[in-house]
Design the sequence.
């Protein structure tokens, strides 16, 4: 299994990274408060084909695979791009699997934004032909549709039918609300875990991007900042932290890519690999974000440095589509896993 990106994949990633640098830099993220105006950025991402990257060309997509989506979401994680990107991409796949060509094309083209709803402290929550339970809904304001997803099923609902109570969040660029959905009528649905696990792969990619971005930020600062007439990167305490950050970021990247390729190829242990990717990438983003703040010293705790932005987003992703405990329990539930 080749875990390194091809030339074509590298070109796709480069195009996305350049667009995000130009249109959604960290200066933009620092000033953005959800729900804000993302119409300009959304239109450009749609033109690039981001929302239909893994959708069949006959249904308005690009026709690539999960590997390309993972590499793209890694860049989104690096840039901390706000908005309902995850829900929209997952909803396009669900609509395609359900055979609703019109809805697939509407979502893949960016004409419809899709918020993400997942169970919130409710083990009885269900999604499929019938949606019911308490859900945490992300980025509902401005969304046209809502994707309600559980480990056993998924459904797309009209956003007007979903009401939530806004909840405070560590990350001001992410809007989160909690609400009860009872017998919601789905526009399309599927009694499958595929949407959940595809979402886990993309969430792991987002966390991996954060781990890599914070590693790069720390290394750059360690070369620039001087103390006692020397760059702080020459001091053992700092360079060892940077080395640990690099190891965590690399581990997260290769575990996530491997898991995505294994799951998409039909590996019977694919979901366990994806759960492992979530655990490794979550630890990497959380630990690297904390070390990045530490490496910046007193400046790291101030608003003047962007280090806190990565720490805030990593905390939101940590509980998206299953907590670390849920992922560990999924791995532990296996009778036998061939690694």
Sequence:
């Amino acid at each position: 299994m080749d875990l390194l990106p091809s030339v074509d994949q590298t070109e796709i990633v480069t195009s996305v990274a350049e667009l995000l640098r130009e249109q959604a830099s960290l200066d933009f993220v620092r000033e953005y408060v959800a729900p804000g105006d993302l119409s300009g950025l959304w239109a450009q991402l749609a033109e690039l084909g981001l929302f239909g990257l893994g959708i069949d060309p006959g249904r308005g997509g690009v026709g690539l695979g999960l590997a390309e989506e993972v590499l793209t979401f890694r860049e989104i994680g690096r840039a901390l791009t706000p908005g309902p990107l995850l829900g929209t991409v997952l909803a396009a796949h669900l609509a395609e699997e359900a055979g609703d060509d019109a809805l697939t094309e509407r979502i893949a083209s960016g004409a419809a934004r899709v918020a993400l709803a997942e169970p919130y402290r409710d083990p009885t929550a269900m999604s499929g032909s019938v949606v019911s339970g308490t859900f945490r809904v992300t980025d509902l304001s401005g969304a046209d549709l809502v994707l309600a997803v559980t480990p056993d099923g998924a459904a797309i609902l009209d956003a007007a039918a979903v009401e939530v109570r806004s909840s405070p969040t560590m990350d001001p660029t992410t809007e989160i609300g909690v609400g009860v959905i009872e017998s919601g009528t789905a526009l399309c649905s599927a009694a499958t875990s595929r949407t959940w696990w595809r979402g886990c792969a993309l969430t792991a990619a987002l966390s991996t991007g954060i781990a890599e971005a914070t590693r790069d930020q720390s290394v750059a600062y360690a070369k620039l900042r001087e103390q006692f007439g020397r760059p702080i990167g020459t001091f053992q305490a700092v360079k060892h932290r940077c080395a640990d950050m690099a190891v965590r970021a690399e581990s997260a990247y290769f575990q996530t890519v491997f898991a995505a390729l294994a799951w998409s190829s039909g590996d019977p242990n694919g979901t366990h690999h994806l759960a492992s990717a979530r655990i490794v990438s979550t630890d990497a983003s959380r630990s690297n974000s904390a070390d990045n703040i530490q490496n910046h010293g007193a400046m790291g705790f101030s608003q003047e440095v962007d280090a806190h932005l990565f720490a805030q987003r990593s905390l939101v992703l940590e509980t998206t589509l299953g907590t670390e405990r849920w992922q560990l329990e999924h791995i532990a539930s296996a009778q036998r896993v061939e690694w």
Notes: DSSP finds eleven helices and nine strands in the chain. Residues 7-190 form a domain with the Butyryl-Coa Dehydrogenase, subunit A; domain 1 fold (CATH 1.10.540.10). The chain has a mean pLDDT of 93. Strands lie at 114-119, 130-138, 145-150, 153-158, 165-167, 176-185, 188-190, 226-227, 230-231.
